[in-house]
Amino acid sequence: MTSDNEKEMFLLVDEEGNITGAATRGECHNGSKLLHPVVHLHVFNSRGELFLQRRPAWKDIQPGKWDTSVGGHIDLGESVEMALIREAREELGITGFTPQLLTHYVFESDREKELVFSHRTTYDGTITPSDELDGGRFWTLEDIRKALGTGIFTPNFENEFKRLGF
Hints:
Layout: E1 9-13, E2 19-24, H1 25-28, E3 35-44, E4 50-54, E5 66-67, E6 70-73, H2 80-92, E7 100-108, E8 113-122, E9 136-139, H3 141-147, H4 155-164
Parallel strand pairs: 3-8
Antiparallel strand pairs: 1-2, 3-6, 4-5, 4-9, 7-8
Protein name: NUDIX domain-containing protein
InterPro entries: NUDIX_hydrolase-like_dom_sf, NUDIX_hydrolase_CS, NUDIX_hydrolase_dom
Pfam family, one: NUDIX
């Protein structure tokens, strides 16, 4: 994969998650602030380390930065849980995990506005990052805290890491 599909269809929602319509990726990421739902999964190992993925250079949003373990858009016709399971399998090759919903909130940047459904899980199995990513690795929470504000993480991740109090 070398670019995002600008024609991919995303759900549009209100701040409670009720579907209000649909729009393309291009329309949602062009500064329109059309609210669209996404899932995040924070994957911890049993030592309490957090897996972060590295975004590839070709991504349209925050290329080359470290980000949440798993993150993706909810497809038309999918539930939050279905999207979470699909994205974890597609991005990290993990299955059979038990997600715990932590929170949901609206995140807004200069280019987009997302309704984020944030989850966590503990997983000690094999993680195989897909070609959708530029790899990934486990970090100690202390190493993450030391690197906050240095520009190596996505603003979305930094905001959520602080919000969740990890």
